[in-house]
Amino acid sequence: MYPYIFGASCKQNSMTIKNGELTNAIQLSSPHFNQRPDPFDISLLVIHNISLPAGEFGGNYIRDLFLGKLDIDAHPSFLSLKGVRVSAHLFIDRLGKAVQFVNLTDRAWHAGVSSFDGKDNCNDYSIGIELEGTDETAFTDAQYQCLATVTSQIINTYPKITKQRICGHSDIAPGRKTDPGRAFDWEFYKRLIN
């Protein structure tokens, strides 16, 4: 099911970060963000997965969720999302196309109750990237390539983020979250990062 293409292709030499915006990514402004308590403390990258409805790919439901426009009557499982206000900085679809919903200098609402290395409230100091997928479904080569390209640019722009400060949602919210899941190949991803 891929009647939509709302992302931009991640070409290694064409992606840079300027004023918190990833060039060549489609820019869609989520209303679900606020300012960081310390705009100079961007020091963690968090990898997530998402699919709406669960296990289904394609369509515009994820975009609509992050934009605060999800029609909760469109699918029975969406009733649990009524009133939910959530966002990520970036989303990478199964085709390896990127969409930016929140400027990287701002605080996206992706982590929830969380802690990394003894420091709570990861949204305050992290960048969140959502991959279209599930814990059990292999991610595509195009997604890994795009994620690695974007990660390299993030590390170059925000030097407090190192390979050691890249984690999954499950690492900062253990017992509550499981993404990006067992299907995510951390070793392959980290080899791809320049």
CATH class: Alpha Beta
**Total strands:** 13
Name of the CATH architecture: 3-Layer(aba) Sandwich
> How can the largest sheet be summarized?
7 strands, mixed
SSE run: EEEEEEHEEEEEEHEHH
Fourth-level CATH superfamily:
Peptidoglycan recognition protein-like
The total domain count is 1
Strand residue content: 15-25%
What is the residue-mean pLDDT, rounded to a whole number? 94
Terminal CA distance reads: 32 Å
Radius of gyration of CA atoms, rounded to a whole number = 15 Å
In short:
With 194 residues, this protein is an alpha/beta fold.
What does this protein structure show overall?
The protein is α/β, with parallel strands linked by helices and 194 residues long. It has a single domain (8-15, 23-192), classed as Peptidoglycan recognition protein-like (Lysozyme-like), CATH 3.40.80. Helix content is 18%, strand content 22%. The protein has helices at residues 61-66, 141-157, 169-172, 186-192; strands spanning 8-9, 17-18, 21-22, 26-27, 33-35, 44-50, 90-92, 97-100, 106-108, 115-116, 119-120, 126-132, 166-168. Strands 1, 4, 6, 7, 8, 12 and 13 form a seven-stranded mixed β-sheet that branches. A two-stranded antiparallel sheet has the order 2-3. The protein is globular, with a radius of gyration of 15 Å. The chain starts with 7 loop residues before the first strand and ends with a helix.
